[in-house]
Amino acid sequence: MKLESISLRWSPERFEILDQTQLPTREVWEKIENVEQMIEAIKALKVRGAPLIGVAAALSLAQSAQKGSAQQLLLQQAKQLYEARPTAVNLMNAMDRMTAIIQNIFSIDEVVRTAQNIFTEDVDLCDRIAENGKNLIQDGDSILTHCNTGGLATAGVGTALGIIRRAHEQGKKIHVYVDETRPLLQGGRLTAWELQKLNIPMTLITDNMAAHLMSLGKVNKIFVGSDRIATNGDFANKIGTYGVALAAHYHKVPFYVAAPFTTVDLDCPSGAQIPIEQRAPEEVWGFKGSQAEVFWAPQGTPTYNPAFDVTPHNLVTGWVLDQGLYTQKEISEGILKRGSKC
Ligand code: MRU
Question: Does 42 contact ligand 1 (Cβ within 6 A)?
């Protein structure tokens, strides 16, 4: 079975990722030959986006199983992949599922089939999110989004960007304001790249322009993705999301978060328990990409570089999940807690 998305190509003979650190300047497909390379790719954000890192890590384990890795080694590799990034719970969910298969019914075919299922299920989950969210967007809407939540972040059409894409495909005339998304520029480099390919009208802004645009009445809806949703509806997403939510609340702009159930952490009662990844100072001192590096801060300047922030549930208008659209009332009644182990 061959699997293909805009950022992953997998077959039993060959596994490749689109190196997202090189976008939009170069479209370079990197061959993945072992789990160590995949861990490096996840840490370096060559492969990124909460759903995609779960899918990619699972396929990396499938490749390892096919190359003859023993059960003990696969379990160890699943643990190393699990720890590659701390915030996106999709990675942990995918590794827990793979670990259970490796531990309980260890067969190469089953390991491969499970990884393939994780990929195809994600395609389906994205599709459902797009369907559940598309009617929130009306003809003439001006939508702001943060980070990259499209095909580059999932195996399918994406989450927040998938909804925007589906509304555009319905023929609605929409305009998208793209937050550049400091420090790694997932908006400026990746979302702009995707929207350009999809012919969706957009305007790129720096992150500190979003509140000003809202004050001018130029944004009437906001859609973002998530790396982890707590059962009370608080959620973590790319740093800067919380500021967007605060400005949206003040200006009464509807603010939606879109994600598959693999992003919901049933063991996490609130945003306070979500682990936040801290990254290297170089990313704040300037910009370090595959093509260029420029530092504007004095060498050695102390930095603070959390990759994510937490948006409290009371700032969210609606949660667009694959199971449906949830309101604040439904979330406060505990709809996300069903099946919770807490
Ligand atoms: O650090 P990244 O680029 O992996 O962060 C990605 C995000 O914050 C996305 O918004 C999130 O993973 C949702 S992707 C569908």
Answer: no
The correct CATH number of 133-338 out of 3.40.50.10470, 3.30.450.40, 3.40.50.200, 1.20.1050.10 is: 3.40.50.10470
Distances (CA, A) of 149 to 7, 49, 130, 233: 13, 7, 12, 19
CB burial string 166-197: b at 16+ within 10 A, e below: bbbeeebebbbbbbbbbbbbbbbbbbbbbbee
225 close to ligand 1 (CB < 6 Angstrom): yes
Parse the chain into domains and list their residue ranges.
3-127, 133-338
CA angle, residues 171, 173, 176, in degrees to nearest 5: 120
Return the pLDDT at 340.
41
Nearest atom within ligand 1 for CA of residue 161:
15
Q: Which residues of the chain have pLDDT under 70?
A: 339-342
Q: Which atom of ligand 1 is nearest to the CA of 90?
A: 12
Q: What local confidence, expressed as pLDDT, does residue 292 receive?
A: 78
Shortest-distance Cα residue to atom 15 of ligand 1: 149
The pLDDT value recorded for residue 293 is: 87
For residue 54 and ligand 1, the question of a CB distance below 6 A is answered with no
Please confirm, yes or no, whether 109 is among the known catalytic residues.
no
Ligand 1 centre distance from Cα of residue 151 (Å): 11
**Residue 39: CB partners within 8 Å, gap ≥ 6?**
80, 81, 84
Whether pTM exceeds 0.90: yes
**What separation, in Å, do the N-terminal and C-terminal C-alpha atoms of the chain show?**
38
Nearest to 87 by CA among 336, 342, 278, 305: 278
- Domain made up of 3-127: CATH architecture: Up-down Bundle (1.20)
pLDDT of 337: 85
